[in-house]
Amino acid sequence: DMFNWQATIMGPPDSAYQGGVFFLNINFPSDYPFKPPKCHFTTKIYHCNVNSNGAICLDILKDQWSPALTISKVLLSISSLLTDPNPNDPLVPEIAQAYLKDRSKHDQTAREWVQKYAT
Fold it and tell me: Does the pTM exceed 0.90?
C-alpha cells in the first residue's frame, strides 16, 4: 500500500544504539506532502524522544514540517536523534533525566535494550 511504508534505521556508529536494527512505520496522510508523515518505531528503543508506543518527538514531524523535506531527510533526522537525543523536549522525562544525570548508566541501559530488542 502506497500510504504505509516500513523503514529500517541502523543504530549509528559511536552511539549507544550501534549495532541495532530499528524498524519504523511511516504513514502518509492523504494531503502529503503538505502534512508530515506519521512515523513511529515498531522496535522498542530506550530513548527520551521515543515513547513506549514508538511515537517520536521530532520538530520536523510536527510544526517544523516542510513539503520540501524528503523521506530520506526524515529518516536521516531520526537517525541523528539516536546520536544526539534532545532531553530538553522529551517524550519520556525519566529517560531524559537519566541521560542528563548519569549518561554512562543511560547508555548502558540503551545498549541492553539494543541487545534485547534490536538485534
Answer: yes
